[in-house]
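Agenda item 2: NAI complex prediction
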Amino acid sequence: MTESTPRSFDVLILGGGSGGYATALRASQLGLTVGLVEESKLGGTCLHNGCIPTKALLHAAELADNAREGAKYGVNTTLEGIDMPAVNKYKQGVIDRLYRGLQGLVKSRKVTMIEGTGRLVGPDAIEVNGERYTGANIVLATGSYARSLPGLEIGGRVITSDQALGMEWVPQSAVVLGGGVIGVEFASVWKSFGTDVTVVEALPRLAPNEDEALSKGLERAFKKRGITVKTGARFSGVEQSEAGVKVSLEDGSTIEADILLVAVGRGPRTQGLGYEEQGLRVDRGFVLTDDRLHTGVGNIYAVGDIVPGLQLAHRGFQQGIFVAEEIAGLAPQAIVESNIPRVTYCEPELGSVGLTEAQAKEQYGEDKVKALDYNLGGNGKSQILGTQGFIKLVRVVDGPVVGIHMLGARVGEQIGEAQLIVSWDAHPEDVAPLIHAHPTQNEALGEAHLALAGKPLHAHD
Ligand code: NAI
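Presented output:
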């Protein structure tokens, strides 16, 4: 910062992660002056400790599987080993390129970066390093942190995804506490790297936020891969020594391993930032807003993981764009939370959008909902890839498709069309005449809609 750094902006944003920087980019595009306060690195969790590094690890994991299984396809390869420092170098290279690009982008849009830890000190003011900055509008985007359980201290061999992403070695064995998104993605990476993995999930199924069919399919696939899955299993404690960890469950059993990964959810980063003092409504750490993302205080908005709902980077991007447009007076359309696409990048992948079958039945009534499973066994490209799985469609009888749930290698790439179908309230009969290229996995989405419209092609009636 220099003497000439402006102190007052149209939009002042606290936090430069996905939600914060998207707000900044869109607001500056709309001709507003923007200040962006960031204490660490522009790009936040997604770029530096979340989405991007994890997906790089998952790509390396896929290559490891391919090397191990080459002979199945007549290509004689063997997996000699995993060089974690080299994997991390590749991963860091991806982050560095994106980080440089993002810094350049923000600079080119004339956003003023304010480095340091900010604190809300008034309905229009944030203090950073003892300096007061003001904004006609304030946007809070302080993100989330890896939570633990009461009494479960992180340290040594008990880690969260933050430490797991920086590991320079492959554990021989690992216990993953929590079978949600982070849990199943790390379980998948480590299994591909040769680790003996046990997933411990308190609820009755893996990926419990997904449609039950996806949970069951994933559990079957994980078991086939040799991942031990313990559902309905409650953690009671952990002891660690020089050699490893001993994890105890409430049923009295114990599991020994090199490390324990704690993946029991992410908490909102809102403590000690002055939010409650300024009169914001905070519930279990989350900042409450209306559906215009307004907090109800002054001109203060909130976006991203601190707002209750799906903690996903693309939700943060969209909320950021929304708030910038709202401030600029463009009256954007409110975001429909259930239309936010979800992809979990384990092997096999999960992709979903809209309502689960259970949610649809609750919303529309038991007999007003029809579900259909299209097995990837009938899809040429999936057979070529050697993957198993299915696409499950949920429709309202004589009405639109309200949920699409997919399981199988690479199915996350199909989420684009799936979200158009659900967001545009398409009926299966609208999708059936649209042509899907052969042989692609995308074709399976087309065929599932053909089947639901009553004219299945590569499927038994
Ligand atoms: P999560 O909420 O998805 O999963 C946490 C899991 O831990 C739940 O299934 C819960 O039942 C279980 N759990 C809680 N307490 C437990 C206990 N005492 N014993 C055993 N199991 C217990 O949270 P996760 O996986 O930590 O991810 C955090 C956030 O990050 C999520 O909201 C997720 O959406 C986001 N994320 C998204 C990714 C993606 O879109 N591909 C990738 C990674 C994270």
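Discussion summary: The pocket of NAI is lined by residues 149, 177-183, 185, 200-203, 208, 234-235, 263-266, 311-312, 343-345 (CB under 6 Å).
Owner for follow-up: CH.
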